[in-house]
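Technical appendix A lists one of the benchmark inputs used to test multi-chain prediction within the project. The record comprises two sequence entries:
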Amino acid sequence: MDVFETVNTILAVRAFQSTPISSEQIKRILESGRLTGSGSNQQPWHFIVVDDPPELAKLAELAKSGPYIAQAPVAIVVVVDRTALAVSDGSRAIQSMILTAWSEGIGSNWVGYVGMKGVNELLNIPENLDVLAILPFGYPVKELGQGKKKRKALAEVASHGKYGMHLG
Amino acid sequence: MDVFETVNTILAVRAFQSTPISSEQIKRILESGRLTGSGSNQQPWHFIVVDDPPELAKLAELAKSGPYIAQAPVAIVVVVDRTALAVSDGSRAIQSMILTAWSEGIGSNWVGYVGMKGVNELLNIPENLDVLAILPFGYPVKELGQGKKKRKALAEVASHGKYGMHLG
């Protein structure tokens, strides 16, 4: 699937088939994160692959907004340095990873912001690093192409020349 | 170009041909930003297309790290709300945009962090919004596929099961 089609069709997936993700695919997703550009090439990230079902269940319990992590065959926990650009760089890496996955038919969703401190402890993550996201990955239960994005119109989020000027 | 190939080959571009970018391509790049997922679907972003050469020269002067903006046929200034997730969401949108561009042979680079306050004034951006990046877009002077990424090895940035455990 080409990039624009991938960006255009990708949806958050919160229900996964039990079908495993091959290790080649997991590797390609990880490589997509690793190869992403970052400010001053700092690469302020670390990716932890979790595929043990009891561990996935513990992650699901810690991340209140992501109970569906427990059903996913695999999750990648994205950890970043506590530096100014790390949230930005980590978010770019996450976007690369979920786009690569979707282009191969694999769904994901960004789970984060609540309960992440507990994840540090569970996965032996040093205290000076933050968990930016847990990304469960799996084949979606719903067929791809079902579902629609809800987004503001382009005219509402884009301008030409100066802020607020109509995009021709 | 498929997603993984795009992620794998994309490089920062800091020298552009004067060849214009078609309005269809600019629209597709903007759409890639607009269609990106965001926390709670807040879409905390705004994209300003700048294609007037004197304005591009002024942007280049303000953004000390991006003198090459002046050569680009077009730049998109990415503006975000001052909310907790906006940097993260805006960074994801930027990644979608630069990947879509690269897949069509168009290069870019994230310019930001220094001099952005002046951009608010230049482009009439409300004071409650931050300029996250200026993205110049253009056909690269160097042929695509030239140049190599410098990244840490996968074993250094990825673990299996727990932080620091060897990725099999």
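The first strand of chain A starts at residue 45 and ends at 50. Chain A touches chain B through 68 residues (CB under 8 Å). Comparable benchmark entries are summarised in Table A2.
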